[in-house]
Amino acid sequence: MSFQIAIDGPAGAGKSTIAKEVARRLQYVYIDTGAMYRAMGLYFAGCGIDLDSEEEIGRACGGAEITIRHVDGRQQVYLNGENVTEQVRTEKAGMLASKTSAYPEVRRKLVQLQQEMARIQDVVMDGRDIGTAVLPEAPLKIYLTASVETRARRRFLELEAKGSPADLAEIEADIEKRDYQDMHREMSPLRQAEDAVYLDSSDMTVEEVVDEILKLRRQSE
Ligand code: C5P
């Protein structure tokens, strides 16, 4: 039987950094589900269809093939055969994902793919609905969050380090908008699963959060 660690939480809470490190330490496969929604968002934008039309989005879904591969432990996302791992990291792709991930057809398609990946191997999977909808039976669930200010500041420093300075207030506004969209959509809104452990990383280092999750993993034996 494979073991699953589900990590959910809002944008910028540090889920991917933490999940990647936990996966590395346990030698599990890290699956970043947000990258899949981002790839779908880019696909819809590229098709030039009306992003407000559930019908058009539903029809277009069949034309997108998302494939996940792991190279040296790093996840690579392919959209119809093209490696879009870098392209999906932009703010624009994040907003597109947040908008189009609300559509049931998009979620159905990706949830199926995610469940299949978790069935065949030990995984650390992060997203918004992993503990509540994708892997409701996961033996360990974490809800990882941090204050909006902390999340915006982290993102700001990240962009600055990459040499692409941004506006802190703008980042904060984007994060708040994305939180609202993700928490208020009809299908699989972001919320803490009843049996998830709540972790606020605002005043914790990456190492502290990772250690806490590894401790919880040992306790779940
Ligand atoms: O985590 P990340 O910022 O890459 O996610 C981008 C967007 O994809 C989120 O804002 C959310 O709308 C959507 N998403 C989702 N369900 C997931 C993962 C991401 O709806 N499991």
Description:
The protein has 221 residues and is α/β, with parallel strands linked by helices. The protein has 2 domains: 1-28 and 122-221, Rossmann fold, CATH 3.40.50.300; 32-121, 3-Layer(aba) Sandwich (Rossmann fold). The chain contains 9 helices and 8 strands. The chain has helices spanning 15-26, 33-47, 54-61, 91-100, 104-120, 130-134, 148-161, 168-184, 206-219, and strands spanning 4-8, 29-32, 66-71, 74-79, 82-83, 123-127, 140-145, 197-200. The strands form 2 sheets. A 5-stranded parallel sheet has the order 2-6-1-7-8, sandwiched between helices. A 3-stranded antiparallel sheet has the order 3-4-5, covered by helices on one side. Strand 4 (74-79) and strand 5 form a beta hairpin. Helix 2 runs antiparallel to helix 5 (104-120) and helix 7 (148-161) crosses helix 8 (168-184). The longest helix has 17 residues, at 104-120. 38% of the residues are buried. The structure holds cytidine-5'-monophosphate (C5P). Cytidine-5'-monophosphate (C5P) binds next to helix 2, helix 4 and helix 8.
In total, how many domains does the architecture comprise? 2
> How are strands sequenced across the largest beta sheet?
2-6-1-7-8
Order of helices and strands: EHEHHEEEHHEHEHHEH
The tally of beta strands, per DSSP, is: 8
Q: Would you summarize the structure shown here?
A:
This protein is of the alpha/beta class and about 220 residues long.
Features:
single chain, 221 residues, alpha/beta, Rossmann fold, 3-stranded antiparallel beta sheet, 51% helix, binds cytidine-5'-monophosphate, kinase
